Model the fold of this input.
Amino acid sequence: MARLDPHSYADLSQGITGAISLKLNVDFDAKKLSGTVRLHLRKPASGILDLDTRALEITGCRTGEGNEIPFELGEPDAILGARLRLQLPAPAQDIEIDCAASDGSTALDWLAPGQTAGGVLPYLYSQCQPHHARSIFPCQDTPRVRFTYSAEVTVPDGFTVVMAAAPGGVAPGTRPGTRTFTFTMPQPIPSYLTALAVGSIASKDISDRVRIYAEPEVLDRAAWEFAGVGDMVGVAEGIFGPYEWERYDMLVMPFSFPYGGMENPRLTFLTPTLLAGDRSLVNVVAHELAHSWTGNLVTNATMEDFWINEGFTVWAERRILEALEGPDYAALHAAIGRISLDEAFERFGADSPYTQLKTPLAGVDPDEVYSEVPYEKGFLFVTLLERTVGREQWDAVIRRYIERFRFTSITTEELLEFLDHELPGVLDTIQARRWVYKPGLPENAPVFVSERLENVRALADAWTRGKRPGAGDVAGWKAEEWQLYLKWLPRDVSLKDCEDLDGRFGLTSSGNYEILVNWLVLAIRSGYAPVLERTRGVLTNVGRMKYLRPLYQALLGRPEFQGFARDVFDEMRDRYHTLSRVAIEGIFSKAGV
Ligand code: BES
Ligand code: ZN
Done:
């Protein structure tokens, strides 16, 4: 059999991992995560077994019985990493590999104390999606393979380890001055959902199955911000069916975390930029929670099918928001999503294959083409299905979909086949294949009508006719209305208008990063220098790519701010997450700066 995932060397005809056990040691001085991984195959295999690795040192390999296994580490490929080829001498079911990930691991971010809230201890965290798990331990790093796992992680005294798994306890390590934390993951997961974090971490319960983990310095704020998540889990269960992961805990990350959230099962990772102080950004939690069904139970087979994860999850996220806050509120999010989708289409160009739902990614690094398309075009496609067959029928289909495919990974084609069977004729009616296999947005894309949306739109449209907003116009606005308003204003406005807007509404001191960054981008594009100090504050504190990208982009678009952007980036480059650093370097080189 051939390889089935363009981003993995795994060949499932050679053998399939069913369970993993990890023994890892964290060395903060050497920035080294090393130990042993034991792969338990579903059935004994012999001959060649190919595994994925990236920037890993491999020092030994043997069978469960202790017999040497010859291995060969291939030349590293820029996207796939290096193939680890084992030659199993005789049928083997258990394989033990000694490995070490150092500073070059793309999955790991090693933070100096100064990059944490506490400022005393260093911190380590992982981000494995899409293809970085191989940069922690050798594995069949494709979502087609699912495994349960157990882990023992040894750290110096004073550190706490958390994993996206069930904690088993902590005991003194075999070496003095260390402790070993144990975990088990009883539900089978794809490799990209393994996750760990090590640092000064405390916790607080929100409900009987929801707990917040964070550095002690931010724990109370986090517990307040996410106090409603216990109820949110219940609401989601009401729509999508039983929650299958027992607990829904959250870890508030240090600032360098490059995403808004990551749906690591049992332990969602969240950017601290969500701590707005007014619970205005919990949609990100709704999104990661929704992945507990769409993504973590039913998983994309490869990154070419990534829209199955994200499109269904954005739809599910907005269903949760609608249930909690009403349809008008969900419509605001749909409108924000639509703007970002149009921006992505503009960036890629109308004919780009990256504007298809199913994206051909052989030879393409999925991190490089990450965009809103699978999210927002996917959302519109699922919404179109929902509107075409009616909510009642659609909700029943979704439940059967989850029931049918739970704990498996599916391709776009398997999904379409399922839908065709459930809803005969509907795929043709809505021209599903055009949505999935052709670029751009079909004309039958759903539109959203809501009074709140129309009000913001009217106010923004009136700008060019000289209308400036007063307190009365924005009374009762939520953060989403501000975001839309700022997005819908002309691309640059006069310096006087910048000053007035900021003077009246205090945008530069907004605690909501969505408002703040949209405002800063508008002001920077307009050449309004008084926001530079605040911009520096964001760029030197926040690692979330969603904010770094547009800010650097806007700065580089103004010749007078290019030097400022260069200075800040030079100061920060080693402190950003590798992904963020690479993304920003791309923006600089594209801008020719
Ligand atoms: N799974 C993604 C994050 C991700 C995607 C990491 C691909 C690496 C590769 C997560 O669920 C996500 O979509 N996060 C969004 C949240 C938003 C859509 C509410 C983010 O980080 O902005
Ligand atoms: Zn997501």
